[in-house]
């Protein structure tokens, strides 16, 4: 593991360790085979993985339940962590095409991983309905002076998106979109001196987020409604609009 640095800024534990509701827990089962990443979540390998609870507002019970359903599932093998997500969406929309753009300026799906469960040296991944990704690492949360390192990459990353509908076409009513991801464990090389797969029983900090914008149609195209903030829907509620409270995330446990 990364050596302890007594001079490094420490998390604000009073804020971090007071989630508004019990944090979620996901027991990640082993994949029966190497999964081909094509966005099709009906493959038999995924049958072994339970879905998460439906996502809630980032503030938890302080806000109404999201009107659109979102859920995710995970599997793992000795080389890769697999993530699948399913999102209900009547208006499929995405604009960003350049890797490491700020993807949450579009509707997106996000994965957050803290392998050391220390609230530092954690990883973030975002993807939109065009399949454009942003992968980054933070040495510590933004509020403690952390900055996103977008030069870092998930080496060997595989992703696929499938759409139930027509992207950027306001004349249609869409069903939603799915995401399938494979992340090699060897890529997660910041939190430890020896990156590699977890052992059965290991636990990582985990959360998922979905950003969804309110849209209107102008000139035959989707546009964000001016002045309206984005919706933030998550697996494990944070209590405040801030995903960068890693010690409030849920837990990912690797089953043997």
From TrEMBL:
Record domain Carbohydrate-binding: where: 37-213
Q: Which SUPFAM superfamilies match?
A: CBD9-like
Give the span(s) annotated as Disordered.
1-20
Look up the signal peptide feature and give its range.
none
Listed InterPro entries: Carb-bd_dom_fam9
Q: Which molecular-function annotations from GO does this UniProt entry contain?
A: carbohydrate binding; hydrolase activity, hydrolyzing O-glycosyl compounds
Q: Which Pfam families match?
A: CBM9_1
In terms of PANTHER family, this protein maps to: CARBOHYDRATE-BINDING DOMAIN-CONTAINING PROTEIN, SIMILAR TO POLYHYDROXYALKANOATE DEPOLYMERASE
What is the name of the protein in this document? Carbohydrate-binding domain-containing protein
């Amino acid at each position: 593991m990364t050596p302890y640095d007594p001079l490094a800024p420490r998390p604000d534990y009073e804020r971090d360790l007071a989630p508004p509701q019990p944090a979620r827990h996901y027991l990640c089962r082993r994949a029966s085979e190497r999964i081909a990443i094509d966005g099709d979540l009906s493959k038999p390998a995924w049958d072994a993985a339970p879905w998460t609870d439906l996502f809630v507002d980032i503030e938890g019970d302080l806000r109404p339940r999201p009107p659109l359903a979102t859920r995710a599932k995970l599997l793992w093998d000795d080389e890769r962590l697999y993530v699948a997500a399913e999102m209900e969406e009547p208006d499929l929309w995405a604009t960003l095409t350049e890797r490491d753009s700020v993807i949450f300026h579009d509707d997106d799906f996000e994965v957050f991983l803290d392998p050391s469960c220390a609230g530092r040296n954690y990883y973030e991944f975002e993807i939109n309905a065009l399949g454009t990704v942003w992968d980054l690492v933070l040495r510590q949360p933004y509020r403690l002076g952390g900055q996103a390192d977008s030069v870092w990459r998930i080496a060997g990353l595989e992703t696929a998106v499938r759409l139930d509908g027509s992207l950027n076409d306001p004349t249609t009513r869409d069903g939603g979109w799915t995401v399938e991801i494979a992340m090699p464990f060897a890529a997660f090389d910041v939190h430890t001196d020896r990156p590699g797969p977890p052992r059965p029983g290991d636990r990582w900090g985990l959360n998922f987020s979905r950003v969804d914008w309110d849209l209107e149609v102008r000139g035959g195209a989707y546009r964000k409604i001016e002045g309206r903030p984005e919706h933030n829907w998550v697996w494990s509620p944070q209590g405040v609009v801030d995903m960068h409270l890693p010690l409030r995330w849920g837990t990912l446990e690797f089953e043997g």
